[in-house]
Amino acid sequence: MKQQDLSVLKNEWTFATAGFYLHPQFDIVHPKFYAIIDSDCFREDDPGSKRFIENISDKIHPDTVMIFLINNELNIKKRGLFSKNKIIYLNALGCPMNDENPFHLNIDKEIPGLQNVILANIICANYMGFKTMYLMGVEHDWLTKPSTMLCDDKHFYEGRPDSPQMNILTKFVPYEKSCYFAFCAFMAHRLLKEKMGDVEIFNLTPNSFLDVYPFKKYEDVVRDLK
Prior knowledge:
Oligomer: single chain
Distance between the termini: 17 Å
Strand content: 5-15%
Radius of gyration: 17 Å
Structural class: alpha/beta
Largest sheet: 4 strands, parallel
Order of helices and strands: EHEHEHEHEHEH
Number of domains: 1
């Protein structure tokens, strides 16, 4: 996403996540939906987390629909965050997706626990009726990095004082835990794909490890949008 021209997406239905508001083309893309499901983002006892979520609340467009977990609702309302936005609260408090437990994807009811925010956006888009989806910036390459942090300099917001890299994502995560997290996330994507049936999802992320979805080149997909 550092090198790609995202301006061609300005009239498309776009779902963004956590740090995208720091992208230089954020205002051009003008995401229709924006998801943040990591509860650490709403911590008031951590200055970095506090600054990060307040910056998003200030910069987000008023017509962008926000997607959060229901357990963060009271915190958001108490602090007056995202007061100008419509909000979808996901009741994702159930057991995470696995091969043993049946689940549904109706977001007006309790849905499975979510391993990452990409799953939240896919589930919401599916509920809204989108039949073709394209993923960008989903390397899912956590296991290629040391255990000291979950992010590296491939992020377009690397080094900025208001970036998530400066707080919640720099916490130490043992490699063993990263392996388990990755396994659960990849399994969830597989189960999600099987559950959605005729919905097509394509991964436009170069060098992504998330191979459950067919790969396509971003430039090929957006050529007709220019």
